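Onboarding guide, step 5: your first structure request.
Type a short instruction followed by the sequence, for example:

Predict the 3D structure of this protein.
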Amino acid sequence: MLPRFPYRVQIPLGLALAVTLSVLLVSIVAARISARNAQLEIVNRVQSIVELLAAQGKPLLAQDDTWRAYTLLRNASALLPQTAKGQSRAALLDAQGRFLAASDPRRLPTGEQALGVLINGRLLPTVSDATRTKTLTAPDGGMALIEPIRSDDAQVIGFVFAEVDAAAFDPDWAALSTPAVIGAALAILLLVPLGWLLGRRMARPIAQTAKCIAQIGHTDPEQLQLLLPYVKDPELERIAGAVRQLLIETSARQANAQRALSAERLAAVGRITAAVAHEINNPLAGLITATRTLRLHGDQPEARNRSLGLIERGLQQVRTITTALLPQAKVEDRCMTPADLDDMLTLARATAAQQLVIITSEVDVQAELCVPSTVFRQVMLNLLLNAIRAAGQDGQVHARLFVTPDKVSFILANTGKHFSDERLQKRLMTNDGNDPHGFGLWICHEFAVRYGGGFTADQAADIPPPFTTRLNFWLPNLARHDPQKSAAD
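The system replies with structure tokens like these:
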């Protein structure tokens, strides 16, 4: 029950309980000792009275003076314990063991045989067995004493008989416990206020320490260190020292976390910057080639219109990419068309020509096509440039646009070193966009996750020769989910 209370309550209550238990134990032991001493005192008193009766009753037995014997017994029995309550009595016996006189004639009738018969539930010894002092005890705690009276020539002329009931030996527990109760009450009145003050003093540093612990994570650790108490008790100092060390470590962790957060923000800014630069640089190379074509063949209407269309769609792609970086911007994108694949092939052929890589393509449209054009153009250009780089000198690259009612796939194969799906997934998880050379694959993967598509690499056994690596990127075909198209149908 005590553990439910705070220390400032436990300490005074514990002291009071300890004092009370101590007083009770001491009182019980003292009462037992006092009761035992009282019993020994009663026995000694009875023996002294018996000896007195034996000395003064000797001439009365010789004269057979019953009346004087009765007067002697009546006066002597007043000295026995609890005589007034009828719990002790005495008698003089003649030489044959018969009652000559008794302090209580009703229980010890004059003239009746005493020795050798049952008296008050106790069997007394015979005359021949009572030639020496006999002390008889009863199972209930009472006692009887028989003392022979001898003449001057050592002949037994009579006996003194004294009997004390067990009730006379019962201690007065009320009288014995009164001093103990008074002592316990005084001790409690003194120790409870003292224990209360001591408990508050001991609990104050513990409460302050607990308050500091409760504020960890909500208050500055340096301020909490100032609130921690400084105590001389070694155990409390260990607790306060441990909390102080925890606050120091917490402060250091917070500083490290702040530095890590700043570094992570800078790294995120760097990744975004690198990604944007990568995605803008990809179409710029082709746009520069288109402007050169326009400068050389601008007098030809077909070449001029084709170059201008390519430049316009490329610039629109760059604009969409940069607009997507604005948090409040609402990016609207058109559905892709097979002409976007031609644009990406045109942009990538400038790089392919430098490495003498041959690019072939095919388009298999089996349903209406609708995917975000900017996203798919970025993916196609990224994969084309990566495939040209992987194919190496005099390599081959084959691009296929495959459209079904469910999805739009861009499948790109090259003749470079085999690149398995395990290696692809490992690179995507390892690079996580930190390697500038892996931005192309990483961005394709991010687009696939964001738009609910997929990005995988085929196994070598599934790739027709002469190609050795084939990447498959796809997004869900949104044509059948367009509500305006459904309403028109």
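Each response can be followed by summary notes, for example: The radius of gyration is 59 Å.
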